[in-house]
Amino acid sequence: MGQFFRDRLRRLRDRLVSSPRFQRLAAAHPLTRAKARQRARAMLDLCAGFVYSQVLLACVRLKLLELLLEQPRDVEQIAEKLALSQDAAARLLDAAASLGLVERRGKGRFGLGELGAALIGNPAALALVAHQPMLYADLADPVALLRGDESAEPRLADYWPYSAAENPAALTAEEVAPYSALMAASQPLVAQELLDVYSLRRHKTLLDVGGGEGAFLITAAARAPRLRLMLFDLPSVVERARARLEEAGLSKRASFFSGNFLADPLPKGADVITLIRIVHDHDDASALELLRNVRRALPRDGTLLIIEAMSGVAGAEPLDAYYGFYTLAMGRGEPRTVAEMQKLAKKAGFGRFRLLSNPMPIVASILAARPDPDYHGP
């Protein structure tokens, strides 16, 4: 009965809010004017969001933010440095100022805005912004993408070679290089979220499954000097990781294992295993197989840490839109709620879960899981 009345009230609300006459009245009345303006701004942001992202991309590609980090400059100086006409530079600066990326400093000069300053201090975010054009191209016709029309040929799937490969382990170093480099560049964002709320010093050995070029292991090693390091990934990726950890002086602490984590057994010996931005790249059947593989590799008192954007987490709601379409363009996977993630992990043999409270869930959420001692599945 309660749900019936809630649904009825929502239908009445929908009819009311969709009425042009009500909208005009709400915009004019002192008690509702602020809400009406807030709703209008939200609608503008939805309609103009693609343009906002293109302004951001232009700033990143032209290195405008780095230029203004050096010192504030006037339009003429900026135009010369960016190889733009003064009219084009002024148009970009006006747009960037409206978004908080730059700000006017008086006497015709521009400096970094608050958002621009935060962005320039985050190389991982800059790498992700530079990567977005492929996704933008795939979203040029979102209806075709949703319907799976043959005319829609997602570019992101080609960039992410694992998604379509029948034998991922056979991918060459050249084929995995672009995506591996992007993941390595953006990894510090996620690593910080985990390591600021979870101490790896309590563990002896860490296995990072799908660990890419080892960027997370390098960060973890600095936080936990006695921690042994293990990495599992495709053969061509492992070679890149081996070189990177050797360069970081960690080769004596690290062991490397190659294979397909959906088909090959994972190495044993770690008391904590991390899956960082891995599970949401796979459908339920593949994700379940991966989690079962992890469960077989963990001791009974081991810990699994799943670190990725999760659906429905307070403060990170827009990620449902972003990752929902990102994984669609990629050709596989989906964002999952914490409850859905736990349900999958429970089927795989995990039974004790804890969602860690981290500072920036919009970057990633962290779900800790322990093996279920009563599990006797595959």
Q: Describe the global form.
A: globular
% residues in beta strands: 5-15%
Put simply, the count of helices is 17
Give the N-to-C terminal Cα separation.
43 Å
| Largest sheet properties | 7 strands, mixed
Low-confidence stretches: none
Q: Which class of secondary structure composition applies to the elements?
A: alpha/beta
Strand order of the largest sheet: 6-5-4-7-8-10-9
Mean pLDDT: 89
What is the N-to-C succession of helices and strands?
Answer: HHHHEHHEEHHHHHHEHEHEEHEHHEE
- From the alpha carbons, calculate the radius of gyration and give it in angstroms: 24 Å
What does this structure look like?
The protein is an alpha/beta fold. The chain has 17 helices and 10 strands. Strand 5, helix 14 and strand 6 form a beta-alpha-beta unit. Helix 5 packs across helix 6, helix 8 crosses helix 12 and helix 12 packs parallel to helix 13. The protein is globular. The model has no long low-confidence stretch (mean pLDDT 89).
Please describe the structure with a list of short key phrases separated by commas or semicolons.
globular; 52% helix; 17 helices; 7-stranded mixed β-sheet; 378 residues; alpha/beta
